[in-house]
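Need tokens for this chain, all 163 residues.
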Amino acid sequence: MLDIAEEKKQDRNMMQIVCFRLAGEEYAAPITDISEVIKPQRITPMPQMPDFVLGVMNLRGNVVAVFDFKKIFGLPSDAQTGQAKLIVFCCKGVLFAVVVDEVLDTIKIGLSELEAIPERKTCIKKECVKGMALLEKRMVIILDVDKICSEIDSEISDFRHGK
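Here are the structure tokens for all 163 residues:
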């Protein structure tokens, strides 16, 4: 039987991730970066914003920006399935949501299972990826939500300043 100290050590070497599908590919984000997963909501478009900004929604009195990861990552925008969900992330104390085609599952993985992404394996900027993991014969790209948040901020700022 494991003692409490050993269990805590094992937990530090593990990461729980939420897996989801975008344009036929599997991605994941650490569950610690996710506030909640919800059904699609009414989104109010925002004028004069980059095309990846779908708009804003009201989430229990909070105005939450909604982004399209497919446009951010340069993935094909295929027709939405009935499985679409919104994943609400919390980054630096700010909530934002993204539309995903489908939420698949929640899995706990060992940090030692993370591998670097091979060249040309994904169109996502490498700095926005923590790594990839092979899970039950599926390759899952694990996103770095803090880095993606910084990229989004930078792109919106550049857009507003005409860069």
